[in-house]
Amino acid sequence: MDFSLSEEQQIFVDTVRDFTLKEVQPWVRYIEENQGNDLGHKKAREIFKNAAKLGLTAMGYPEVVGGVKSDPLTIGLGCEAFGLHGGLPQLESGQPLCGPSGPGSVLAIAGSKEQKEEWVPKMIAGEKVVSIGSTEPHCGSDASQIKTTARREGDEYVINGEKQMMGGTRWSDAHLVFARTSDQPGAKGISAILVETNREGIEKYQFRTLGGSFWEIGGIRYKDVRVPVANLVGEEGRGFYLGMGMFDWMRALAGCFTVGLAQKSLDESVAYAKQRQTFGQPIGKWESVQFRIAEGATLLEAARWLSYRALWLAGAQKPYTKEASMVKWWVPTIAFNVVNDCMQNLGATGYTTNSLDELRLRYIRALWVADGTIDIQKIVIGREILGRDFVPYRREK
Ligand SMILES: Cc1cc2nc3c(=O)[nH]c(=O)nc-3n(C[C@H](O)[C@H](O)[C@H](O)COP(=O)(O)OP(=O)(O)OC[C@H]3O[C@@H](n4cnc5c(N)ncnc54)[C@H](O)[C@@H]3O)c2cc1C
Questions:
Q1: What separation in Å is there between the alpha carbon of 140 and the centre of ligand 1?
Q2: Domain check: are 198 and 249 in the same one?
Q3: Is 25 exposed, middle or buried (0-12, 13-18, 19+ CB in 10 A)?
């Protein structure tokens, strides 16, 4: 077992560091403050396109669609490096600056030849963004109970229903919408369909969120929205299962999203603890401050390796659903507490916007809910350990 980075991984991490310091870090606050207007969005897209020019967004996509061969762990190291150097790993619409997004991973695997050619290269180039349309006003965790329908009429689907809490409602070019295409109950009746956001019959609305632009979410009402049958992704009735594979990927990556951010807070807290004096000595000598640092460093070390292992399993093509859920539950939970402790070490400065701690807290807090809540992750872990018969809410065989 070798815990060191390969030479290529180190070079890659250094490249992300340089890019973050120059292109991302100076703009994080600006993008966040411009929630809901064009300025933040334009800057985020510009940064995304610059990341694309460097090949970051292509990593992990198949080469036939313009991707760059890369293993999931290396992509995770890149995502960690964005946070570690004062940036954010995602600037809007849940689109990582390095590696495939959830919908990108689905399209690259299950999309038709035409969908791959039409969408994936543009997603990699930062010209198109596709987001996830799963959650509805009446259900989020209980995703097999969605009500949105896609009724087949000739060579079109007619979509009716409402999606909510979707990243990128305002800016995305399309959503991968999960809709019922048959009367089969639960997961079996659900298909994944690409629905462009400029289609007739679409009405959008927005929520203001704690997260600013980077976690902007909204809803779409679909009233007799017509899309060609060619927009079906994968097979009819398989959408739910495609979605679950997509969530494994996003959940495993979420650990690296958050570890880098929390580590940066810790590093800043350590530097502050060495120079800030109270009662005649640096605050780093006080047990309260020092122990917050020691505990945070230990928790982050464990979180980092849990995250790396989930991604290593993904790269080795081994099952990693359980580990992805362990990451998604535990890492954002401890990272939130670590950043909160680091904020405490800064005293009042931590509560101001001079520090990015408050922004990091808001970013990380979203991951307690987005892509499956921390409670749902524990159910997945329990199911993987105890077996499907122990799923508390199981309805169908
Ligand atoms: C920042 C952000 C971005 C998002 N982006 C998207 C997106 O792009 N696309 C999309 O479709 N959705 C998105 N979502 C929505 C997200 O997927 C849902 O909010 C999430 O799945 C939870 O659903 P809910 O909000 O309806 O909560 P509910 O499912 O109603 O749950 C409410 C509470 O009950 C708990 N709970 C529910 N069932 C159980 C159970 N069986 N056992 C124990 N506890 C349970 C939950 O953990 C939660 O605490 C996003 C959400 C956020 C916050």
A1: 5
A2: no
A3: middle
Q: Residue 72 is part of a domain; what is its CATH number?
A: 1.10.540.10
Residue type, 10: Q
Q: Structurally, how many domains does the chain consist of?
A: 3
365 lines ligand 1 (CB under 6 A): no
The residue to mutate among 35, 93, 132, 141, having the most atoms of ligand 1 within 8 angstroms of its beta carbon, is 141
Nearest C-alpha to atom 2 of ligand 1 is from which residue?
Answer: 370
**pTM attached to this predicted model:** 0.96
Q: Please indicate whether residue 167, judged by its CB atom, sits closer than 6 Å to ligand 1.
A: yes
Tokens for 213, please give them.
């632009």
Q: Is the CB of 177 under 6 A from ligand 1?
A: no
The dihedrals phi and psi of 386, each to the nearest 5 degrees, come to -90, -25
| Ligand 1 in reach of 215 Cβ (< 6 A) | yes
What are the b/e assignments for 271-288, b being 16+ CB within 10 Å?
Answer: ebbeeeeeeeeebbeeee
Q: Which residue among 221, 237, 253 closes a domain?
A: 237
Q: For residue 146, give the 3-state DSSP assignment.
A: coil
**Contacts of residue 335, Cβ cutoff 8 Å, sequence gap at least 6:** 258, 259, 261, 262, 300, 303, 364
| Domain with 114 in it | 7-124
207 shares a domain with 106 = no
Residue 138 lies in a domain: yes
Q: Is residue 313 part of a domain?
A: yes
Give residue 190 CA to ligand 1 midpoint distance, Å: 18
Closest Cα to atom 35 of ligand 1: 375
For residue 141, the CA-to-ligand 1 centroid distance in Å is 5
User: Do residue 145 and residue 225 come from a single domain?
Assistant: yes
Distance 370 CA to ligand 1 centre (A): 6
Tokens standing for 374? 């921390």
Same domain (yes/no): 120, 151: no
In the listed set 124, 153, 168, which residue is the last one of a domain according to the structure? 124
- Per-residue pLDDT tens listing for the chain (397 residues): 899 999 999 999 999 999 999 999 999 999 988 877 788 889 999 999 999 999 999 999 999 999 999 999 999 999 999 999 999 999 987 889 999 999 999 999 999 999 999 999 999 999 999 999 999 999 999 999 999 999 999 999 999 999 999 998 988 999 999 999 999 999 999 999 999 999 999 999 999 888 877 888 999 999 999 999 999 999 999 999 999 999 999 999 999 999 999 999 999 999 999 999 999 999 999 999 999 999 999 999 999 999 999 999 999 999 999 999 999 999 999 999 999 999 999 999 999 999 999 999 999 999 999 999 999 999 999 999 999 999 988 665 5
Choose the residue to mutate in 165, 190, 258 for probing ligand 1, maximizing ligand atoms within 8 Å of C-beta: 165
Residue 395 belongs to a domain: no
Task: Please report whether residue 209 resides in a domain.
Answer: yes
296 and 374 assigned to the same domain? yes
